[in-house]
User: Which sequence fits this backbone?
C-alpha cells in the first residue's frame, strides 16, 4: 500500500513545477522555434464578410510564393458534422475559392523569408469580389429574405432542437410568470499567446511534424490526416509550451492544414504566427447567445417551469471537432442547472452568420445559460417580493437528494448547493448592503447606487461517451490512458495524451503519482503534448484532465507500484503487500531499498530479479474510466457587490466572493489560480469584452485598444471559500473545475447592477454591461416614468 | 502586423534631426517613444520611408531651468517625470499626471513631446498641459525657431500646427507657487485606456491664472472663457450651462460625462462646494 504524505500528494498546495521556466521567460512556445531555412506565411484574408470571388491574381514578381485553393491538390476542406438529426453540413475550405463567408477568411497563403516580406507579398495579391448582403445579426438569420451563406441550405440554421418535458401540465398553478430577453456578446478568447504553427517534413521519419499551439494534439493529428489524406503514421503533432487555450486552441485550423501542406510541398520548414489583428478579426469567436426565457413560479416561490427559445450565432462554418452545435446542445440540456422544476421546454437554433465560426470558450454555453437563468431567478424573486437568495434556497437540489437527477436528466453526483449559497450570502453580508441601500436611496448616495448580486451554478466536468454522443459532436471522448515508467535512476516519467497550458498539470499529475508511489513531484517528469510520445487522448477541454488523466495516472502508477513492490518484496524477503513506497524507497519492516536500485536491477541487472517477475517491467500503460460517465459536478456560488455610477454608467466591483466546491482538491493553490483566472475572464464577459459587427459583417475592433480586456486593476481581490464534497465517481473524489470561474461573473454582476438600479426601475439585459447600456437603461426607465406621470 | 520596410537614422541633437528631416525623402517621420507610431507602423497605417529616432538627442532629453519656467525637452519620457528624475515645475502635479498615463511599459518609452505631436484629443498631456498654459517650442529648417501656446499648437484631432520640416523640441511650463491649486480627473473604465471624458482645473491666484479645460471631446481641449470658469468655481454658473455655451453643437445628454469630469476636477482642486465623489481619482 502507498504511504499517504499530504506534504506532496493530494491536497498539498505545492508550488507549480512548470512555473520556474514560465516566470523566468524560458518557456518554449511555437514562435520560439527556429529552424534553418524556415519560411514565414502571411495570409491574404477576406476584407469582406460575404462575397463571391470573381478572380484571384498572383503578382507577376514573387507569385511563386503565393498559393491559392487551386494549388492545394488533394486537400479536403474541414467537415465537422453533428450526429443529430436535421443537421446541415458545411465545409470550411482551407483556402476560400468560390465564396468568402466571413471577414478574415484565408484566401491565399504567401510565403517569404520573413513575416514582413510575406505581408509585402500578400499586399500584391489582387482579389476581385462580387459582394453579397451579409447575415450579421443572429435574430435576423432566419428571416425569409436573409441571404443564404450556404446556398444548398434552405435556411441559415445548422441545427434546430426542441425538448419538452411536462411543460404544459406544470404551469397551470403558476401565479407569477415573467418573460425576459437576454443577450451575450460575441467575444474573442484572447489568450496571451495566439495560435501558431511551425510545420516541417522530417525526411528520416518520413513524417510531417507540426508544432502547433493546441490543446488537443491527437485530435489535430486525426483531423489533419483526414484533410491531407495522409496516414496517421505520417503525422506527428507537437504542442510545445502553450500560452493559454480556453477553447481557442481546441480546433483544427485551416491555417494548420495549409502550413502542413506547404511544408510538404516546399520541403522547407514553414511557420505561421497569428497576430493580434488576425485573432480579433478573423479568428474563431465565442459566446454569442440570445435568449427569450419565461419563468413560472408558484406563490410560495416554488419554480414550476422554464420555457426558453435560444439562438446561438455559430458563425460561418461548423468547426472540427466540436461542430457548430455544441453550444446550443448545451444550452438545452444545462439551462435548468441545479434547480428543481416540474416542467421544461427549450428550443434552440444554431444559426449561421457571416462571422468567424464559434468555438467553445471556457465554460462553453454555461456562461450564457447561467446569465439567462440566474437573471430570470432574480426577476422572479422581485415579482414575488422575496430576496434573490430565498428563491434559490427554495428551489436548489437538497443535499439529501444527492445523487440528484434534474429535469434534463443530468446526474448531480454530490454536493450541498444550499450551503454554498448560505456561505456566499453570509460572506458578502447582504443584510449590511440592504441597510446601506436604504441610506443611499434616502439621498446620501450622490450619483452612485450600490447593489448585490448572486449566481449559483454547476460545472459538469469529465463527462464522457454518453453525454457527448447525445450532443452529436464528431469527437466523443471515452477512456483515458497514461504511461508510468520508473527510470533506471529511480525517477518517474508520466506520459499523458492531454496537454497542459496553464492548468498546472505537470504538478498536479505528479502529486497524484506521489500518492501512489511516494516519489516526490520534483523527481516526476510529466510528458505531454506530443503524439509520438503519449497515448491517444481527445485532449484538454471540458474540465476533464484532473479526473480523467488524473485517474489514468493513478491507475498506471498503482500498477507500477505493484510491480515495484513485487521486486522489492523479493529483495527484502517480505510479502509484496507489506512493502510501503515512500520517500523514494521501498520499505518493509526495518529493511528498505531505494527505488533507483530497483530501477537499476530491472534495466541493467535482471539476474537479481525474482524468477516470477512480470516481464512487462517498470513501464505500465493503464486506462481509466470514471464510475459512470455522466461527469463530475463541481459548483459555485458567486456573490458580488457593485457600485453603479448613474452619471457615467460605470460599474465598479466593490467586493467579490466565490464559494466553490470542486470535490477533493488535488492542489488547492492551483484550484485558486484556476478560479481566479476564470473569474477575470468572466468579469471581461460581464463588463468589457464585445466584438461588434456592423450590418455588412465588418468586425468593429482590430486591436486591443478597441477590444477591451480586463487587466489586473479591473479584477477585485476575490475571496474564495472552499467546500470539498467528494465525488463518488472519480478516483480521489476530485471534480473538474477549470471553467467554473468564468461561468458565474456575468450573472452575479448583472444581478447586482439590476439590484442597484431597482429603485429607478431600470434593468439591463445585455452583455457586456457598458456605460452606454447602463445609461440607456436608466434613460429608458426615466422615459417610462415620464409617460406614466403624463398618463 | 509587421511594418513596411523603412530606413532608420538616429539623430544626435535637435538640429541634426531637423536637418535629416529636410534632407531625406519626403516620407520621413520623427519617432520618439513609438507608443503611437509603433502600432500604426505595424498595422501599416503609417508607411514612412524613413524614420528619424530622436530619443538619443541630448538636447531633447533634458530640462532647462529658465528662472520662472522650466523648458522640458520633447523626448523626456513619462516615466522620468513619474519617477521624479527630472524637476517638476508644478511641485508634483506632473508626476501625478504621468503616473496615470496608460501603463508603465508605455510610460517607459512614451514621451511628452511625442504625445503632444500625436495630438490625440483624449491624451493626458494634451489636456493637462493646455490647462497649465504650456508653450510649444519648435525648431525648423535653417535654424528657424518659433514658439506657440499649446492651446493653438494643437489644431485639431491628431493635428498640430507643425509645418513640414519642423519638430517640437521642448515644452515650456511656468513654475507654480504653493498657493496654486490643481485638479485633473479622467473617466476610464480600465487602467491604461484613453479617457472617455476628462477635465483639468488650475486655480493660481498669485499668477492670476484660472483655467477650466475640458478634454476627450474629439477636438482640441476647450478652455472655458475666464469669466465662465470663475463663475463656475464661484458657484454662480452651473457646470452644465458653461458646457452648453462652450460646446453649443453637442446634444445636452452627451455633456453629462464632461460635467462630471469638471465637477470632479474642481473637487480635486479643492474648489469650495465641489466635493469629489470618485474615490479612484488622483
Assistant:
Amino acid at each position: 500500500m502507498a504511504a499517504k504524505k499530504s506534504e506532496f500528494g493530494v491536497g498539498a498546495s505545492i508550488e507549480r513545477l512548470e512555473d520556474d521556466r514560465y516566470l523566468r521567460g524560458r518557456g518554449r512556445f511555437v514562435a520560439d522555434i527556429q529552424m534553418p531555412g524556415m519560411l514565414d506565411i502571411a495570409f491574404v484574408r477576406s476584407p469582406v464578410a460575404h462575397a463571391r470571388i470573381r478572380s484571384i491574381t498572383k503578382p507577376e514578381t514573387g507569385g511563386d510564393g503565393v498559393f491559392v485553393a487551386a494549388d492545394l491538390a488533394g486537400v479536403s476542406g474541414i467537415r465537422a458534422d453533428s450526429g443529430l438529426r436535421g443537421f446541415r453540413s458545411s465545409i470550411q475550405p482551407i483556402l476560400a475559392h468560390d465564396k468568402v463567408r466571413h471577414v478574415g477568411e484565408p484566401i491565399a497563403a504567401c510565403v517569404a523569408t520573413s513575416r514582413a516580406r510575406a505581408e509585402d507579398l500578400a499586399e500584391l495579391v489582387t482579389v476581385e469580389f462580387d459582394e453579397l448582403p451579409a447575415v450579421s445579426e443572429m435574430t435576423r438569420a432566419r428571416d425569409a429574405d436573409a441571404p443564404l451563406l450556404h446556398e444548398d441550405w434552405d435556411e441559415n440554421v445548422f441545427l434546430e432542437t426542441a425538448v419538452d418535458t411536462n411543460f404544459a401540465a406544470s404551469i397551470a398553478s403558476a401565479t407569477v410568470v415573467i418573460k425576459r430577453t437576454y443577450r451575450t456578446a460575441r467575444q474573442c478568447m484572447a489568450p496571451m499567446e495566439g495560435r501558431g504553427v511551425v510545420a516541417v517534413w522530417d525526411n528520416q521519419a518520413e513524417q510531417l511534424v507540426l508544432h502547433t499551439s493546441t490543446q488537443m494534439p491527437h485530435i489535430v493529428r486525426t483531423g489533419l490526416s483526414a484533410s491531407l489524406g495522409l496516414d496517421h503514421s505520417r503525422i506527428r503533432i507537437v504542442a510545445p509550451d502553450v500560452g493559454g487555450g480556453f477553447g481557442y486552441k481546441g480546433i483544427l485550423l485551416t491555417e494548420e492544414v495549409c502550413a502542413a501542406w506547404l511544408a510538404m510541398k516546399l520541403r522547407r520548414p514553414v511557420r505561421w504566427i497569428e497576430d493580434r489583428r488576425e485573432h480579433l478579426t478573423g479568428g474563431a469567436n465565442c459566446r454569442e447567445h440570445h435568449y427569450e426565457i419565461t419563468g413560472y413560479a408558484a406563490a410560495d416561490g416554488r419554480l414550476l417551469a422554464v420555457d426558453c427559445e435560444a439562438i446561438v450565432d455559430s458563425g460561418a462554418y461548423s468547426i472540427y471537432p466540436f461542430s457548430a452545435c455544441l453550444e446550443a446542445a448545451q444550452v438545452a440540456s444545462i439551462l435548468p442547472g441545479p434547480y428543481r422544476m416540474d416542467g421544461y421546454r427549450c428550443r434552440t437554433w444554431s444559426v449561421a452568420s457571416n462571422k468567424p465560426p464559434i468555438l467553445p470558450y471556457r465554460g462553453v454555453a454555461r456562461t450564457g445559460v447561467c446569465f439567462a437563468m440566474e437573471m430570470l431567478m432574480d426577476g422572479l424573486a422581485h415579482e414575488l417580493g422575496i430576496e434573490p437568495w430565498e428563491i434559490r434556497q427554495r428551489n436548489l437540489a437538497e443535499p439529501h437528494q444527492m445523487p440528484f437527477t434534474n429535469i434534463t436528466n443530468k446526474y448531480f453526483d454530490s454536493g450541498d448547493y444550499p450551503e454554498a449559497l448560505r456561505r456566499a450570502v453570509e460572506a458578502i453580508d447582504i443584510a449590511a448592503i440592504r441597510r446601506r441601500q436604504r441610506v443611499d436611496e434616502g439621498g446620501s448616495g450622490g450619483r452612485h447606487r450600490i447593489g448585490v448580486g448572486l449566481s449559483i451554478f454547476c460545472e459538469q466536468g469529465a463527462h464522457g461517451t454518453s453525454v457527448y454522443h447525445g450532443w452529436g459532436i464528431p469527437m466523443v471522448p471515452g477512456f483515458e490512458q497514461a504511461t508510468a515508467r520508473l527510470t533506471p535512476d529511480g525517477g518517474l516519467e508520466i506520459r499523458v495524451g492531454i496537454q497542459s497550458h496553464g492548468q498546472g498539470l505537470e504538478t498536479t499529475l505528479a502529486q497524484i503519482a506521489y500518492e501512489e508511489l511516494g516519489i516526490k513531484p520534483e523527481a516526476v517528469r510529466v510528458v505531454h503534448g506530443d503524439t509520438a510520445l503519449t497515448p491517444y487522448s481527445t485532449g484538454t477541454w471540458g474540465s476533464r484532465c484532473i479526473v480523467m488523466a488524473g485517474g489514468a495516472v493513478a491507475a498506471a502508477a498503482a500498477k507500477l507500484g505493484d510491480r515495484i513492490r513485487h521486486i522489492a518484496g523479493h529483495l527484502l524477503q517480505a510479502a509484496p503487500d507489506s512493502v510501503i513506497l515512500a520517500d523514494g524507497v521501498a520499505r518493509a519492516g526495518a529493511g528498505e531499498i531505494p527505488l533507483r536500485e530497483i530501477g537499476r536491477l530491472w534495466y541493467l541487472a535482471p539476474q537479481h530479479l525474482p524468477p516470477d517477475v512480470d516481464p512487462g517491467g517498470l513501464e505500465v500503460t493503464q486506462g481509466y474510466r470514471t464510475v459512470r460517465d455522466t461527469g463530475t459536478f463541481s459548483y459555485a456560488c458567486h456573490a458580488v457587490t457593485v457600485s453603479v455610477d448613474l452619471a457615467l454608467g460605470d460599474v465598479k466591483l466593490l467586493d467579490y466572493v466565490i464559494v466553490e466546491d470542486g470535490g477533493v482538491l488535488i492542489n488547492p493553490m492551483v484550484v485558486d489560480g484556476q478560479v481566479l483566472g476564470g473569474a477575470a475572464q468572466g468579469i471581461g464577459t460581464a463588463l468589457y469584452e464585445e466584438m461588434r459587427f456592423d450590418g455588412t459583417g465588418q468586425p468593429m475592433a482590430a486591436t486591443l485598444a478597441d477590444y477591451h480586456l480586463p487587466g489586473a486593476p479591473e479584477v477585485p481581490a476575490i475571496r474564495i471559500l472552499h467546500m470539498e464534497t467528494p465525488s463518488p465517481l472519480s478516483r480521489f473524489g476530485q471534480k473538474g473545475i477549470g471553467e467554473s470561474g468564468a461561468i458565474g461573473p456575468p450573472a452575479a454582476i448583472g444581478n447586482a447592477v439590476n439590484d442597484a438600479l431597482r429603485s429607478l426601475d431600470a434593468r439591463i439585459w445585455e452583455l457586456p454591461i457598458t456605460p452606454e447600456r447602463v445609461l440607456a437603461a436608466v434613460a429608458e426607465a426615466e422615459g417610462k416614468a415620464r409617460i406614466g406621470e403624463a398618463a | 502586423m509587421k511594418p513596411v520596410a523603412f530606413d532608420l537614422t538616429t539623430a544626435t541633437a535637435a538640429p541634426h534631426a531637423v536637418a535629416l528631416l529636410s534632407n531625406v525623402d519626403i516620407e520621413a517621420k520623427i519617432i520618439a517613444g513609438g507608443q503611437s507610431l509603433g502600432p500604426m507602423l505595424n498595422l501599416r497605417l503609417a508607411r514612412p520611408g524613413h524614420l528619424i529616432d530622436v530619443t538619443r538627442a541630448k538636447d531633447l532629453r533634458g530640462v532647462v531651468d529658465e528662472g520662472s519656467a522650466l523648458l522640458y525637452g520633447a523626448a523626456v519620457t513619462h516615466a522620468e517625470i513619474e519617477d521624479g528624475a527630472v524637476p517638476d515645475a508644478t511641485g508634483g502635479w506632473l508626476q501625478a499626471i504621468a503616473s496615470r498615463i496608460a501603463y508603465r511599459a508605455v510610460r517607459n518609452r512614451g514621451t511628452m513631446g511625442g504625445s503632444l505631436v500625436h495630438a490625440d484629443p483624449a491624451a493626458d498631456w494634451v489636456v493637462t498641459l493646455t490647462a497649465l498654459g504650456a508653450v510649444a517650442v519648435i525648431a525648423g529648417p535653417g535654424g528657424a525657431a518659433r514658439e506657440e501656446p499649446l492651446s493653438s499648437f494643437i489644431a485639431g484631432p491628431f493635428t498640430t500646427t507643425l509645418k513640414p520640416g519642423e519638430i517640437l523640441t521642448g515644452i515650456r511650463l511656468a513654475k507654480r507657487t504653493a498657493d496654486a491649486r490643481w485638479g485633473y480627473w479622467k473617466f476610464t473604465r480600465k487602467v491604461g485606456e484613453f479617457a472617455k471624458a476628462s477635465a483639468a482645473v488650475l486655480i493660481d491666484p498669485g499668477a492670476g491664472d484660472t483655467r477650466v479645460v475640458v478634454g476627450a471631446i474629439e477636438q482640441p481641449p476647450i478652455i472655458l472663457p475666464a469669466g465662465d470658469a470663475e463663475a463656475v468655481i464661484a458657484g454662480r454658473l452651473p457646470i452644465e450651462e458653461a458646457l452648453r455655451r462652450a460646446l453649443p453643437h453637442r446634444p445636452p445628454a452627451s455633456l453629462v460625462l464632461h460635467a462630471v469630469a469638471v465637477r470632479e476636477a474642481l473637487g480635486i482642486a479643492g474648489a469650495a462646494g465641489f466635493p469629489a465623489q470618485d474615490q479612484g481619482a488622483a
In short: The mean pLDDT of chain B is 94. Residues 58-174 of chain B form a domain with the Uridine Diphospho-n-acetylenolpyruvylglucosamine Reductase; domain 3 fold (CATH 3.30.465.10). The two ends of chain B are 36 Å apart (CA to CA).
